[in-house]
Amino acid sequence: MARALWKGAITFGLVHIPVELHPAEERKEFKFSMLDRRDFSPVGYKRYSKKSGKEVDWNNVVKGYEYEKDQYVVLSDEDFRRANVKASQTIDIEAFVPAGEIPPQYFDTPYYLVPMERGQKVYALLRETLRSTGRVAVAQVVIRTAQHLAVVVPVGKILMLNTLRYADELRPTKDFALPEEGLKGAHVTSKEVDLAKRLIDDMTEHWKASDFKDTYHQDLMRRIHEKIKKGETKQITEPDTEETKAPRSAQVIDLAALLKQSLDNGGSRRKAADRRRSPGTEASAKTALRVVTSVRGSAKAPARRKRA
Question: Residue 114 in contact with residue 10, Cβ under 8 Å?
């Protein structure tokens, strides 16, 4: 088993549950080397002293807080711990809330909470009590050098800790141009709503995480092998002019017709797995469910989002 990221305890009231914190996330990412485009030689990065210009080994690097111009106070891991010993060693539960009350925009990073040997029974007690009451535990915890709001949730046999964003870490939405709430304010007709409901019903299924795959990783590997096979390993691919050119105008969208077409094609991903790869059907369904400008008198479409 991987080394624990953090060791401490879950506390609420006088209850103390010794646990280890383990990362639950394992991202599948490419590792790219940075190259000099002039001769494609690898680009390296050095830690160097801005005073002497000499390279500095990691063993000699410490954290410093600049309290005045060019004046620093050095902080070690022990200083971070001493700043608040209790906060750095405990997951301090402050409240229990109904499981569905936390909006999705607050969730950040998942972790596993694994009980230590002497905490097994109390760990199970908290897990089963949360499950039976339909509640989750909201807590504060310091991970590395930062304090986090977090939620403790039972998932099968394990308790998971998911860090949350604080309210002031979310940007306000008041500066965005958004359609008014309600059908009338958004110029949406009841017929369009009925068709959208039918499409959503047709595409509704039970959640199963294993059904969804990261296909872009395979697609990019296919592109890499294609460039190798064609002998284009040193060729910098430039974007196609037509694909990158933003459309100046577009026809007025007949949303009801798109919804009807999506229903006729069959919206469910289950009905035909290969249809997910079909550009025509995929475009129809996505366009139908996309929030679009529905003011009929305007011929101007919103700017197309660039693909990553």
Answer: no
